[in-house]
Amino acid sequence: MKLYNPLITILLAISIAGCGDSQKDKENYFSFDEGNLKPMYQATDKVDLTLVNNKNKTIDSVAYFVNDKRISSVKGSVKFTLDLSGKKLGYQNVKALVYFEGDTVSTKTRVEVASGIVPKLLKYTVVNTYNHDVNAFTEGFEFFRDTLIESTGQNGKSYFAKIDYKTGKVYKKVDIDQQYFGEGITVINNKIYQLTWQNETGFIYDVNTLKKLKTFTFDKKVEGWGMTNDGKNIYHSDGTEKIWTMDPETQKLTDFINVYTNDSKIKAVNELEWINGKIYGNIWQKDAIAIINPQTGAVEGVLNLTALKAKITNSGADVLNGIAYNKKTNTIFVTGKNWNKTFELKVSE
Asked: H helices within the chain, ranges in order?
């Protein structure tokens, strides 16, 4: 009877297993041909995706995924064309799952998608000029009926108030707890919603009494910047190119758009206002407002307000920040942090 040494058997098995490539080695078998990819595409483009077969393996088929959703498959190593129409603006994470010689391995790349629309430069006329509190570090600006509601920032100084926009008189003011830096504000379903900057916290108030009804916590790790609503959903900017959709009932962030022009990302969308089906977004540190398609994130127009900033006369004035739409007059009210003026504008193409 022949005896086997168990140790020799184990070592032999390890030796045989070691003859094949590791999973990490296999990940280098295939890669996307990055040299054929552009730094940025437009939403109307198509992208030709080609795999580089680094080890000359026999490919059976390839399945393609975009943002983890399977979109197509091809036989062999045939080139695949990705149609960007209808895709969300911003980065598209592309994965190829390659089936070859009885095995599978994946490889990844990404493409950046900008809008296919060249923004129009809009015009404006100054209808009226009103006084604005130079101590107001404006973060949110919105009309509720004929009353202007303004929220302000800075730790220990944050508040929101109902204001007579013609005189600047404060009807009622609510101070925010000192640990919070107040941010954007919006009114929906007879409730005022307010964000804070870096605390991942928001507040809900009764619009008539201004009594606090609820404190809520963001369900995503994002900052609070601007706010507006379309009568059904709230829109929440976070200081990046993203604008989130929030469910007013649950305060959950349910989706987002990425804001792009035809050739660049808009990195710091701030104060927001819903006007005739579009989102007007103030861009932080820019004296301009982007008119944004809320379905796609495409910037369809730009309102250059550099000339307004030149009319501000107080030395402590900071950046443009504050957009409020008056439905009755079909005019837009704009101001800035610590500006001494608010301007009422009529906008046209």
From this structure: 6-17, 23-26, 306-309
For CA atoms 195, 196, 201, 206, give the dihedral sign: negative
- The architecture of the domain spanning 120-348 is 7 Propeller (2.130)
For 240-261, the pLDDT digits (tens) are 999 999 999 999 999 999 999 9
Rounded CA-CA distance 292/289 in Å is 9
Distance of alpha carbon 341 from alpha carbon 132, whole angstroms: 5
| Residue pLDDT, tens place only, 274-292 | 999 999 999 988 889 999 9
Q: Are 312 and 336 in contact (CB under 8 A)?
A: yes
Q: Which single residue is written with the structure tokens 């959903």? A: 233
Fold of 21-114: Immunoglobulin-like (2.60.40)
Q: How far is residue 194's CA from residue 204's CA, in Å, rounded to a whole number?
A: 6
Backbone angles phi, psi at 276, to 5 degrees: 50, 50
